[in-house]
């Protein structure tokens, strides 16, 4: 969710941990899929409290897109506010923030193979999933002052790591995660300015890094062991403000945990996000437009790598998601358009040339490759 959504009320949906199949629950016939080869998942966030999150699947070879595949394959709704998607060992894991559920689906058939709900856990609004090893996954949360742990193979809940954060305006958030050796780093986005360090052998927070720009929103680890973090700088509205609304890009050495670089970016309401290519040597970021830089560079280039599209009135589109194909470095850029109609995903070659664009669901948020 973007910063303006933080004033909306959240509905906590209780549930239970279970490993389940895909019983017909809506009275419609389930479709059968069997998609081989490479593909791209697009998790469409939908609108808060509308329960209209959807999952799209794109075939880059045929340029065909299938929308609503979760509902079509399982005859059930995906849930409310799709936040992130991660692919591992033939499974795609979908974190549904406002529904408080993590789905596990087969990447070929889209059938549900596992489900982790909130009852009996410290999960409230799950954000991102990180695989520590084959049987250990961490889950961050927008509200809960814990990082939760579950087994991604069995969906058995294993416990929670206290973050020690005090709630600020009801939020004790943890967000994206990267790992260097036995340490997992997670950024505290909502109303915060910290990156927490978790010892995966002890499943405990052992250190933190404080930034002088609020709300670290996106984070990646490059091939040289450097953590790149982009903040949104907080926000300002008629109802109040938090931070200075100036986004910043940081580079931090994961081993020494020292900040090595900081540069201020353009202030705008646009979403800020970063991504890395498969080699981990090139950084891409959304800051109104899309910029590209080598991880050894000290400053962003003056001119954007790809300019955001503009409408008939010359107003720049608000780009909502960015992901890089780890194999061929093609870029996939999600455009929420007006946050209420079907969004668009733009596909670019590694050198920034348009390849294809296709319609997906409302508010395309996260992409993952198989």
Describe the main β-sheet briefly: 4 strands, antiparallel
> Count of DSSP helices?
1
Average pLDDT taken over every residue = 91
Order of helices and strands: EEEHEEEEEEEEEEEEEEEEEEEEEEEEEE
Choose one word for the global shape: globular
- Distance between the terminal alpha carbons, to the nearest Å? 25 Å
Structural class: mainly beta
What are the low-pLDDT stretches, counting only 5+ consecutive residues below 50?
A: 1-23
**What's the arrangement of strands in the largest beta sheet?**
3-2-1-29
What's the β-strand tally? 29
Strand content: over 45%
Helix content: under 10%
What Rg do the Cα atoms give? 19 Å
